[in-house]
Amino acid sequence: MTVRSIRRPLIATGLVAAAATVAFTPSASASVPLRAAAQADNASVTAFVVGTTGKIEANGAAAIVPVTVTCSKAIDFDLEVKVAQAVGQTMRAGTTVRRVTCAEGTQQVRIAVVPVERPFAAGVAFGVLNAHPCDPYCTPMHDERKFNLAL
Predict the structure, then answer these.
(1) How many helices, marked H, and strands, marked E, lie in the chain?
(2) Which of these, 51, 64, 79, 95, is most buried using a 10 Å CB contact count?
(3) Helix, strand, coil content of the chain in percent (nearest 5)
């Protein structure tokens, strides 16, 4: 046996083991909603989270994504919302950046995301939120998790 003939099976075995580890590692989004939280004390935006059920509008031309935002004081900031959805062998995806006005306390905003190529469909989708509210701390925030899209 040569080194080359031994190396290929070892590499293949390592790749299969790595893929199995990733595939069977439990996702945090599967059991508990992730909550984006500002780490700095006295940050204006203290949390935001993707809601559990969005709504399809105009025969899939848009997905309305509910986002719960909590602020310690009034602030305006840009919120980026990405939605991806696998339907059969096709992907549907879209991104929206929207200016959000957050009053003190908790409120829910609805963000419309328009797909790039194919319409969204009823079923499971994945949402990603990103924001950089530039209060005195400019703390970046992030949330990601699966949610349902309903008609």
Answers:
(1) 2, 9
(2) 79
(3) 20, 50, 30
- pLDDT tens track for 87-112: 999 999 999 999 999 989 999 999 99
Strand 75-87 and strand 90-102: pairing? antiparallel
Q: Which residue has the tokens 């925030």?
A: 141
What local confidence, expressed as pLDDT, does residue 15 receive?
Answer: 42
Please state, as a whole number, how many other Cβ atoms lie within 10 Å of the Cβ of residue 8. 9
Question: pTM here?
Answer: 0.71
Contact 47, 38 (CB under 8 A): yes
* Three-state SS annotation for 34-103: CCEECCCCCCCEEEEEECCEEEEEHHHCEEEEEEEEEECCCEEEEEEEEEEEEECCEEEEEEEEEEEEEC
Which DSSP state fits 88? Answer: T
Instruction: Read off φ and ψ for residue 7, nearest 5 degrees.
Output: -65, -45
Of 65, 53, 54, 62, whose CA–CA distance to 110 is shortest? 65
* Ramachandran class of 58: left when φ > 0, alpha when ψ lies in -120 to 50, beta otherwise: left
